[in-house]
Fold this protein.
Amino acid sequence: MGTLSVNQNKLQKRLRRQAGEAVADFNMIEEGDKVMVCLSGGKDSYTLLDVLMHLQKVAPIKFEIVAVNMDQKQPGFPEDVLPAYLKTLGVEYHIVEKDTYSVVKELIPEGKTTCSLCSRLRRGTLYTFADEIGATKMALGHHRDDIVETFFLNMFYNGSLKAMPPKLRADDGRNVVIRPLAYCNEKDIQGPTRTSSSSRSSRATSAAPRKTCNARWSRKCFRSGSARRRAVPKASSVVCRT
């Protein structure tokens, strides 16, 4: 792992601080939780895992982390990259194999958008798997930009003022979805992930570099709940982003 530049270190501390504040403000993680971190292989979910692993070390509560990736059997998907990366971290992980790609191609006409059906199939599979492994929370990598964009998508296309809530109990009543990156800007996430000089696989270097920093803010964030609520659009539904 290469040494972080001054700017990279500032970005990493900012992301961890903002995630800690979001977790505390919305009471996302509680004592004894088993958090299933959903990994897509993109920069957001890599950053999410990094942040939660850091919080796990410094938070005044104990919680488990399980990383889960869903292999939807899309052509060209690099099956070996995530398992190799997660092994180097030493984190418990599962690869859920479900051929939703064939289902989507069969049901959606060529040229039409597949996002809605694909996301519903993926979400249903992950909800079921969360129950199977006893996960009490499902962590997704949506950041502040995603929440704001969804707010405007709903406003312009659905005529409603709704976005993705940082914490949501799913319609089935069993699963609780959390978004610890709700206060984080996408450009901040792109910074450390784009310039990382990790010696791991080139694809695996999408992960934000991990480096221990001052833990006092994390303890403070977990103790003080609603003192710093930010202007995050509140809502109960999503157009397409899941």
In short: The first helix runs from residue 6 to 25. The chain has a mean pLDDT of 80.
